[in-house]
Amino acid sequence: MKNTKKEIVRVAKEMFMTKGYDKTSMQAIIDKVGIAKGTLYHHFSSKKEIMDYVLNERLEQMILSAKEVASNKDMDVITKIIMLLTRLSLKEDDEYLLEHMHKAENIKLNYYLNKLMIKHISPILGDLIKEGVKEKLFDVDYPDELANLIIIYLTEAFDYNLNLSKEEEEKKISVFITILERLLGLKKGSIEEKIHARK
Predict the structure, then answer these.
(1) Which of 34, 62, 104, 190 has its CA 20 to 30 A from that of 159?
(2) Burial (CB count within 10 angstroms: exposed 0-12, middle 13-18, buried 19+), residue 5
(3) Are 49 and 12 in contact (CB under 8 A)?
(4) Tally of structural domains, the chain
(5) CATH code, domain carrying 30
(6) Cα separation of 197 and 79, whole Å?
(7) Which structural domain range is residue 2 located in?
(8) Same domain, 29 and 62
(9) Residue-wise pLDDT tens for the chain (199 aa)?
(10) Nearest of 124, 20, 14 to residue 65 by alpha carbon
């Protein structure tokens, strides 16, 4: 027996990606899943509620991914931090999520998701920074506060609404890497070196 809620979410995600959120109606989702109207409304009261569910699901995947990276015994701490921060960005397939999240009417949702990122990802990053301090790789006095600062910067600096060109984004990434090296007390080029070593 199929899980109706999962099927609704799967079909809705597919339609949001292909047709766009605004052009996808609740009726279209009902027709595609092949269920009664009441069945859909039993699980979700609106299209926005489906999208909120999808966003929270994506955030949970990011948190799980961050935990997997942090617990990987085969990576050094600098590589773990690079991997963790890289996995926090949404993929191209998630563009429809970004478009929805950054609409003016969804500003509270954007704020809420950023707060969840700080709440759940910052402690994982903070523990990695502490690991680097213990190994005498990093010179940091306040690891948890620094982790918060890094996550806040990432959620704001690479905001979808900024409409950054590829060049602007690359410059921001380069500046961020330089700042991160200084904040961690690393030699200039240390992070860049690790990034190139992974390619």
Answers:
(1) 190
(2) middle
(3) no
(4) 2
(5) 1.10.10.60
(6) 10
(7) 1-45
(8) no
(9) 468 999 999 999 888 888 878 889 999 999 999 999 999 999 999 998 998 888 888 888 889 999 999 999 999 999 999 999 887 765 555 666 666 666 666 667 667 777 888 899 999 999 999 999 999 999 999 999 999 999 988 887 766 555 667 888 888 888 999 999 999 999 998 898 888 776 6
(10) 124
